From TrEMBL:
Keyword Transcription regulation: no
InterPro entries named among the record's database cross-references: Aldolase_TIM, FAD/NAD-bd_sf, FAD/NAD-binding_dom, NADH:flavin_oxidoreductase, OxRdtase_FMN_N
Ranges for domain FAD/NAD(P)-binding: 376-654
CDD domains: DCR_FMN (cd02930)
Protein name: NADPH-dependent 2,4-dienoyl-CoA reductase
Transcription regulation in keyword set: no
Domain NADH:flavin oxidoreductase/NADH oxidase N-terminal: 6-327
Keywords annotated in UniProt: Flavoprotein, FMN, Iron, Iron-sulfur, Metal-binding, Oxidoreductase
GO molecular function annotations of the record: 2,4-dienoyl-CoA reductase (NADPH) activity; FMN binding; iron-sulfur cluster binding; metal ion binding
Cofactor: [4Fe-4S] cluster; FMN
A biological-process GO annotation: fatty acid beta-oxidation, unsaturated, even number, reductase/isomerase pathway
Family to which this protein belongs: In the N-terminal section; belongs to the NADH:flavin oxidoreductase/NADH oxidase family.
């Protein structure tokens, strides 16, 4: 067996899990859509058939006030059971097991009806919660138990009680948010009674033959969070109260430390699960940035945990476990931790999906059925759009020839993967290269698709995926060799000096600033990364925080934008703050409302608020967007064949691999 520890069954006494892989909780947005539970059933069934040992749903509230948003899903009444049965039946038909996560948002509720232990507003929501009365606390405990009983009636194999990430239970546990003076506040023993009473009430309602997972916040990463002694004590009490499994929770949502973004090292928090392992006998689950079977195998084989939780990796590839079991990990579509189509969608009230797998959460809508009209297709450009289209079209039975003028595939991903913290983009290129081989796409590197090639071959249609080119600025002095574009820098075609001005503060500008400031990626050096973000793996203080290690800037970098809005406003909803923090760590100078005048031997001349100034810089790097690369489009159109444009050549806004890959998939489905 390729991954013997990862794929070993786990005996819980009354039931057995077929392996040590838990599909972690993710809210997809389907829970609230019309007909969404049927789509959710198809989503989960594919993952069950893909071999995962245990699935945990997105958070379902036990009552109205605990909802994350006004129209979020809850399980409170018997009439709500039937729609959940659609999901559980599908998972069981697929050979899997599934638990429903019970989540009360507490002060994180995005509505004016939220409740919390104390009237303390969350920094990430606009509403102040009402402090719960003693009666409301008692009723909420009963609501948890009622929801768990209904979950059992709906066919779930268990529930996960969400006790981490800063939601209601976590708010009771921590003195940070619990200022109560009754029996539910004050000493830790009192604050811990709320989660313990919930678990006891659930166990009494559901009996012994039902899985109860408790998501325990082992590392709060906020000031005045739990101490390590409190984490251990609560873990022991939970074991005595009857939990089946303890899952690891890392960080509150308001924490200013990244926990799941692509720049977080793989398995960066397994150490905290390992630390608890010697204190309790109940199986423990390690979480966060575990995205390959190799990482999962190492964590379990080394004794850091009994199971591993992977959430987004099952958006990226439903067949993750089956491929690992067949020793085909190279064929796994690896989660790159980008958040762009999953968490960014969730926090924008959109249906979640996956940048590298646009079928995720669209299993009933995007499918690649065998074609009944085989065509010979020419694809220009092996970037994300071209590769995705080629693989999906070839999987349907089309004869696909993929032309790439350069000597490697990947397009803009080849640039992105050079940015510190974006090394995961390598995995997507590896995945598509293996899929190209698997589906027998005729890949022709160092070959430009032009009129002569088309004339000498019999193609039925042409797909142009030639991407983008950097936008130039026509300003005095900008023809200097010291004014370069981001592609030239990332490709190593030019060297820049110790003082640099970056024009354009979108995603490219932020990436370029990071690239110029960080010579060695901390993502590949976990100990360095922990120090960079002030994470204390000795757990000396409450919350596990310490002072971040100070950086000594190796360059003077100026980031400039024309707009007067907040720098980085257009970055990812859940990751933008990380990029801003990194640049602050490196002392990048940020300028807004900038007009560019000229470049000469004195530097870059700019105007801000009608005041002229000169930035004494060695180089200017243009990061001011890009334009569609349509240099060959006219030749393609003159061929007389149908021509389709996908990716950046179609729309050259911010670099958008999510749209490019999805557009390639949708065209492949239709052609």
């Amino acid at each position: 067996m390729s991954f013997p520890h990862l794929l070993e069954p786990l005996d819980l006494g009354f039931t057995q899990l077929k392996n040590r892989v838990l599909m972690g909780s993710m809210h997809t947005g389907l829970e609230e859509e019309k007909g969404g539970f049927e789509k959710l059933a198809a989503f989960y069934k594919e993952r069950a058939e893909g071999g995962v040992g245990l699935i945990v749903t997105g958070g379902i509230s036990p009552n109205f006030r605990g909802r994350l948003a006004p129209h979020a899903c809850q399980l409170t009444y018997p009439w709500q059971v039937s729609k959940h049965r659609i999901v559980t039946d599908a998972v069981h038909d697929g050979g899997g097991k599934i638990c429903m996560q019970i989540l009360h948002a507490g002060r994180y509720g995005y509505h004016p009806f939220s409740l919390a232990p104390s009237k303390i507003k969350s920094p990430i929501t606009p509403f102040s919660p009402s402090a719960m009365s003693s009666r409301q606390v008692d009723k909420t405990i009963k609501h948890y138990a009622n929801s768990a009983e209904l979950a059992k009636r709906a066919g779930y194999d268990g529930v996960e009680v969400m006790g981490s990430e800063g939601y209601l239970i976590n708010q009771f546990i921590c003195a940070r948010t619990n200022k109560r003076t009754d029996k539910w506040g004050g000493a830790f023993e009192n604050r811990a009674q709320f989660p313990l009473e919930i678990v006891k009430a659930i166990r009494e309602k559901v009996g012994k033959d039902f899985i109860i997972i408790f998501r325990l916040s082992m590392l709060d990463l906020v000031d005045n969070g739990s101490t390590w002694d409190e984490v251990v004590q609560l873990g022991k009490w939970l074991e005595q109260a009857g939990v089946s499994i303890i899952n690891t929770g890392i960080g509150w949502h308001e924490a200013r430390v990244p926990t799941i973004a692509t720049s977080v090292p793989r398995g960066a928090f397994a150490w905290v699960t390992e630390r608890l392992k010697s204190e309790v006998k109940v199986p423990l689950v390690a979480t966060n940035r575990i995205n390959t079977p190799e990482i999962g195998e190492h964590i379990i084989a080394s004794g850091q945990a009994d199971m591993v939780s992977m959430a987004r990796p099952f958006l990226a590839d439903a067949e993750f476990v089956n491929k690992a079991a067949a020793n085909q990990s190279k064929l796994i579509n690896t989660c790159i931790g980008c958040n762009q189509a999953c968490l960014d969608h969730t926090f924008s009230m959109k249906r979640a999906t996956c940048l590298v797998n646009p079928r995720a959460c669209y299993e009933t809508e995007i499918n690649f059925k065998p074609t009944t009209n085989k065509k010979r297709l020419a694809v220009m450009g092996a970037g994300p759009a071209g590769m995705a289209f080629s693989v999906y079209a070839a999987s349907r039975g089309h004869d696909v020839v993929l032309f790439e003028a350069k000597g490697e595939v990947g397009g803009q991903f080849n640039l992105a993967r050079k940015i510190p913290g974006k090394e995961e983009f390598d995995e997507t290129i590896r995945y598509f290269l293996n899929q190209i081989k698997l589906h027998k796409v005729d890949l022709r590197l160092n070959t430009r698709l032009d009129a002569d090639v088309i004339a000498n071959d019999k193609f039925d249609e042409i797909i142009v995926a030639s991407g983008v080119v950097p936008r130039d600025l026509k300003l005095p002095g900008f023809d200097s060799p010291k004014v370069v574009n981001y592609q030239q820098v990332l490709n190593g075609d030019v060297e820049v000096g110790e003082k640099v001005a970056l024009i354009g503060a979108g995603g490219i500008g932020f990436d370029m600033a990071h690239f110029l400031c960080e010579q060695e990626s901390s993502t590949l050096q976990p100990e360095k990364w922990l120090k960079q973000w002030g994470i204390d793996n000795q757990y000396t203080d409450a919350g596990g925080l310490t002072e971040p290690e100070q950086h000594k800037p190796n360059r003077e970098v100026h980031l400039l934008q024309r707009k007067t809005t907040k720098m980085g406003k257009g970055l990812g909803k859940t990751t933008g703050w990380i990029h801003r923090s990194v640049l602050k760590q490196h002392d990048v100078k940020m300028h807004t409302g900038v007009s560019y005048d000229k470049f000469d031997e004195n530097g870059l001349h700019i105007t801000i608020d009608d005041k002229q100034q000169v930035l004494d810089v060695d180089n200017v790097v243009l990061c001011a967007g890009q334009e569609s690369n349509r240099s060959m489009l006219e030749q393609m159109q003159s061929s007389g064949l149908p021509v389709h444009m996908i990716g950046g050549v179609d729309v050259a806004a911010e670099l958008d691999a999510k749209r490019a890959i999805r557009q390639g998939a949708e065209l492949a489905m239709q052609i």
